[in-house]
Amino acid sequence: VHALEQHSGLSGVLDLPVETLREKARAVGATVTPSSPAGYCLDKLFAHHVEPTLQEPTFVEDHPRSTTPLAKRHRSLPGRVERFELFYRGYELGNAYTELNDPDEQLARFEEQRATRGEETYALDEDFVEALRYGMPPTTGVGMGVERLLMSLLDVASIKDVVLF
Known about the structure:
Largest sheet: 4 strands, antiparallel
Shape: globular
Helix content: 25-40%
């Protein structure tokens, strides 16, 4: 959030109305619909204003809750989740978060998402919520973009130069 505010000139981004975030995201060329949620707009603004500046290996952590509906709430930062991303040369190499394993909170987040998306609503994943009710231990993992890692190791600018198919 701090980096987004610093590089975009916006202040209080987590308190901005979603329509303002949509307008700001549209202004940087993002495809935005009348029902695009705040988290989507924040991601687009971050990608435009901040990612290109992250040339050295950089961890971005403690993302806004609205950007990651499957991540556990941060233990000490309200409105944030336990998540980090690793950036290098302006693109994301890895994404990680602690999985939300509270079925009631997950159901509430799914319902909140459905309410804000309007016509872009997806079916509620009741099977997933039910599986959480049976119990899921604390879990986390890192999704690594191997092709992006290769891009940085081989010093190439296009992903087409490292994808084999």
